[in-house]
Design brief:
There is one protein chain. This protein is globular. α3 packs antiparallel against α4. The chain is mainly alpha-helical and 148 residues long. The chain is built from 8 helices and no strands.
């Protein structure tokens, strides 16, 4: 059963990527939600975090910023206080969703949390991603000196 669920999850995640590239947002989001539910049922915390982050990012791309923020928060609740790259990615998604809805303080708080996690993990790839996110928030709030 676990092998079948894992194969089905891979299929739905791949289908979501294809749908997203065609900008078929409803289908892509449905597939991402289905893949997430499989991981929740299996109890795989790492994959749960990754799936919540992918879903949040897709919601941002689809222009559904409030839903993206709610999804990131749900993912953070699933992960608890673990120090993980997935948790930092969820904070980064939350930051972007807040920035795009012009909520400066919550965006800054989420970015601060993500940065703390990245520094604890000493993950250069994650830290680089967060620098990009920081540039986004600075640009969104017209903080051009900090953006550069």
């Amino acid at each position: 059963m676990i092998g079948r669920s894992f194969s089905f999850q891979l299929l739905t995640a791949s289908l979501a990527i294809a749908e997203r590239s065609l900008e078929r947002w409803d289908a892509a989001l449905a597939n991402l939600r289905q893949a997430l539910q499989i991981y929740v049922n299996l109890g795989d915390r790492e994959k749960i975090g990754k799936s919540f982050a992918e879903l949040s990012d897709a919601l941002i791309l689809a222009g559904r910023f409030q839903e993206a923020a709610e999804t990131a928060r749900r993912g953070l609740n699933h992960l608890g206080t673990d120090i993980s790259a997935e948790r930092a990615r969820l904070f980064a998604s939350l930051e972007q969703a807040h920035a795009l809805t012009r909520a400066y303080e919550p965006a800054q708080e989420a970015l601060h949390e993500a940065s703390n996690i990245a520094s604890q993990l000493s993950d250069q790839k994650l830290e680089a991603r967060l620098l990009g996110v920081r540039s986004t928030i600075n640009f969104e709030f017209f903080r051009l000196r900090e953006t550069a």
